[in-house]
Amino acid sequence: MDSWLLTFLQETARRQNLPLEGDSIDPVWLEGQPRIGAILDRISGAGTASIGRTPRHLAQNVAGGSVALGPYQFFPAEGYLDRDGQQTRLTEKERDILLVLLDASGGLVLRRDLLDSVWGYASGVETHTLETHIYRLRQKIEIDPARPQILLTAEEGYALNSAP
Fold first, then answer.
1. Distance of alpha carbon 104 from the chain centroid
2. pTM recorded for the entire structure
């Protein structure tokens, strides 16, 4: 890891009054070439989820290792959905989206909160990343993706209907 990058990250954190873990960034940790979102998480000393918990935290709290989701059994730690013995693999981001939506217990999760929780994006960032992932996720979980019954869209966000 270049020392200039380490210095830049430390100075950026100090200028923005962000707490540093142990008032420093561990250069050994940075040698693994983590993504910038992970670095910023590390600088702030907290997860980026504005709704309180990160998807990783949510996955650890799934009782029994799985949860019912419509006609599926969702296994977040393993990253798949099971329907009558047929497994559907999920990407890490698809899994994280489902975890955040499940945590809302059927309530609406605002688009900006999903972007923040799953990707660590700041509010005001324009991106179609979320919509692309929602589209792909619907292809996997909906009988008719054009008429979703499980992954629902509201004007400002998304919700899960876990018992369609």
1. 13
2. 0.65
Q: Report the relative pairing of strands 72-75 and 80-83 from DSSP bridges.
A: antiparallel
Same domain for 74 and 118, yes or no, is yes
Amino acid at 23: D
pLDDT at 32 over 80: no
Buried b / exposed e over 30-67, threshold 16 CB at 10 Å, is beeeeeeeebbbbbbeebbbeeeebbeebbeeeeeebb
CA distance 14 to 74: 41
Range of the domain at 61: 55-160
Question: 20: burial class by Cβ within 10 Å (0-12, 13-18, 19+)?
Answer: middle
Cα–Cα dist 15/12, whole Å: 5
| Residue 50 belongs to a domain | no
Structure tokens, 83: 């329907």
Total tally of structural domains belonging to the chain: 2
CA 164 – CA 156 distance, rounded (Å):
21
What's the pLDDT tens digit per position in 106-151? 899 999 889 888 888 766 666 788 999 999 999 999 999 999 999 9
Report which of residues 102 and 35 the model is more confident about: 102
